[in-house]
Specification:
Blueprint: H1 6-16, E1 33-35, E2 41-43
Antiparallel strand pairs: 1-2
Length: 64
């Protein structure tokens, strides 16, 4: 369930020059795969049926 996407979308757009449509709150999130802190690829589908909190932050809490 998408709770807040605007900050993530704006951050990506500001850092990558990419724009994304704003999904509606309560809608299903888009499928994606990203590396975790150990470099292992993790897919959102790996957590199907579970509550998931996705927290985006700059690398090492630094400038990017």
């Amino acid at each position: 369930m998408v709770i807040e996407w605007r900050r993530v979308r704006d951050s990506i757009a500001n850092n990558r020059g990419v724009t994304m449509p704003l999904p509606k709150i309560g809608s299903k999130p888009p499928a994606f795969t990203l590396p975790n802190q150990d470099g292992k690829k993790i897919s959102l589908a790996d957590y199907a049926g579970k509550n998931v909190l996705i927290w985006f932050y700059p690398r090492a809490f630094g400038g990017g």
